[in-house]
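Postdoc handover notes: sequence design on the structure in folder B. Input tokens:
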């Protein structure tokens, strides 16, 4: 995943609201989001090559999402980063998931990543590029891409121009998705889906054998319910389907 947008504690009805595009090789097999066996209950897509995932949530109200992180460091490609996401989703809070990630980094090699952990109380970004940097997010809309997040983008030597373009795209996305007064999570997700598929923002990618493979829209509510909409293809041409739909008021 190369673009992850989180609206954390900024929409009145849902503390964790996420919109994300996954950019990947077009021949890498995956399956759409579904419940995973085990406890806590996890809902996530699955990478069929390594068995992990890139985005998901669990019944405790924990969200986890990951992107590759560009770095000048030559890191060993060891254990799959998608398995790290699955490990984190086995926890019941962002803080305990962060501890699992730290232990995993001490035990196995990983390529660079940006990992977002969020629940109703804490939202944080864990950046790994040979050392672990942890940033706790303030309430607001935050945009994470390969080269950095929000206004903090690194000029990676091998991808200097691409990093500059990502920084420009992140600024545009944050401005476009600033919540409107009294906007609820579902309305914000509607707008976010249009941004993810809008080529003006540079986040829906098409290339030779590589590009935006899928798109996710997710909201976690205080009552334990959730919304998860998923486009199993580029969001510019693939409709979002409801994987998990929050019950209407009065229903269960």
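Designed sequence:
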């Amino acid at each position: 995943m190369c673009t992850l947008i989180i609206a954390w504690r900024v929409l009145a009805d849902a503390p964790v609201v996420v919109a994300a595009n996954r950019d990947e090789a077009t021949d890498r097999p995956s399956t759409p989001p579904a419940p995973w066996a085990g406890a806590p209950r996890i809902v996530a897509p699955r990478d069929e090559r390594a068995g992990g995932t890139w985005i998901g949530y669990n019944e405790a109200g924990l969200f986890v999402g990951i992107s590759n992180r560009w770095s000048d460091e030559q890191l060993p490609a060891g254990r799959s980063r998608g398995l790290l996401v699955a490990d984190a989703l086995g926890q019941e809070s962002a803080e305990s998931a962060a501890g699992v990630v730290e232990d995993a980094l001490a035990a196995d090699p990983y390529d660079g990543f940006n990992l977002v952990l969020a629940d109703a109380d804490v939202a944080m970004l864990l950046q790994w590029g040979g050392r672990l940097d942890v940033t706790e997010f303030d309430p607001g809309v935050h945009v994470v891409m390969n080269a950095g997040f929000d206004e903090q983008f690194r000029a990676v030597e091998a991808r200097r121009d691409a990093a500059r373009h990502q920084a420009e795209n992140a600024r545009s996305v944050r401005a476009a998705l600033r919540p409107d007064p009294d906007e609820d999570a579902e309305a914000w997700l509607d707008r976010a889906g249009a941004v993810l598929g809008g080529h003006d923002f540079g986040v829906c990618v098409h290339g030779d054998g590589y590009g935006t493979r899928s798109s996710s829209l997710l909201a976690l509510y205080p009552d334990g319910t959730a919304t998860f909409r998923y486009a199993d293809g580029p969001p510019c041409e693939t409709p979002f389907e409801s994987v998990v739909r929050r019950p209407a008021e009065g229903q269960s």
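Context for whoever picks this up: The chain has a mean pLDDT of 94. Don't rerun without checking with the PI first.
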